[in-house]
Amino acid sequence: MKMVAVEFNIESREELAAIDETGWQLGKRAPVAVRVNPDVDAKTHPYISTGMKKNKFGIPIAQALSIYRDARDLQWIDVLGVDCHIGSQLTTSEPFGEAVTRLMSLVKELEAEGIPVNYIDVGGGLGIVYDEESPPLPANYARTIIDALGTNEKTLILEPGRVIVGNAGILVTRTLYNKKGATKNFIIVDAGMNDLIRPSLYDAFQEVIPVSIKEGRKEEVADVVGPICESSDFLARDHKLPEMVPGELLAVMSAGAYGFPMSSQYNSRPRAAEVMVKGDRYKVVRDRENYEDLVRGERFF
Length: 301
Description:
TIM Barrel; 7 helices; alpha/beta
């Protein structure tokens, strides 16, 4: 199997200089690619759009050639490739094609100046179904990228994440109370925004379903909320669910990506356990945190 070299994807002149300095200190040449911002609208949530001029990520494509010239002349830098990433949870393939097309124009300029490009990293970002989205299939995504690459024989690097694990994980939470408000019903559960922050951070939809419940129970529209002292502490809003009894379990679907890695100990809440399931087998792969984990590293003055 061919091994792909590790690259540092740099995003500024200052970062390039810092890596060159570190290479000098270690006596080792650093392989780099420049993360290019191609100014492509990924048509996704603004918080997870990363490839437009107004985003903080990457180097504007108009400035990239100048950065590459600097990198070529540094003693402890090896230029290996080009990198870009335009956003996450994309539900159409056109922005990928547009970004790669712009990237390939840059590659031609680089090669015309004798700057080698062995690797092309087109990032990730292919979306999944949370609600009613209809993202392209991986095969369509691949065809879009291949068409934009043309006949260039380069090593292609892809960074799919959400599309692999997003729908492979769920958050299981226990019903604590039912609360009838003046204008809304609330199902209060033992999980909160510290466990899964996507709904409160992005106003993202997560399907919520009972784990096991007898048929025929009356349905109601309710917000599924946690015990944290924030009005933004919700897992679902205006969700139609059977009337839940305290102690019964709910599953928050599509929590395999941007779930546990974005969780926190906010409100002094230990993070949940992670359990891997395969068929009828399961294993705790990350222990549930406890009070000692909350205070570990703290010192009295």
